[in-house]
Amino acid sequence: MLVKSAQIVVTTTQATEPLVSAEWVHPGLHITAMGSDLPGKQELESEILRRADLVVCDTLAQCKIGGEIQHMARANIDRDVIELGAFTSGARQFERTQQSVTICDLTGTGAQDTAIAVEALARIKREGLGTLVG
Hints:
alpha/beta, 5-stranded parallel sheet, 4 helices, 5 strands, 28% helix, globular
């Protein structure tokens, strides 16, 4: 599976059963899960959330209903989840190492989605990265 050799995995599917297995997760991996945005949807095995060094979400209340986080209670996972705003503002911090496994659970908030896209595009242009398609 590609996850085993990836540094970053982004999921954006309509899955209702996990597509990413906990056994594929390795030190240094970052996963952004965006497809699980409604009740019943799930892209990641819940064990991934238990093992991760950091779990960030866009809005905790929303992710408890429709994000990957909604599955934590059923899997008996009780852990700290940091909202993206608290993380990006510096109110909450995490020192990532090359061995850290990090998860970002995004269910979709218009303002945050737009801010992330604008910043990502600016960095890509500034660093001369990416490929224009279209």
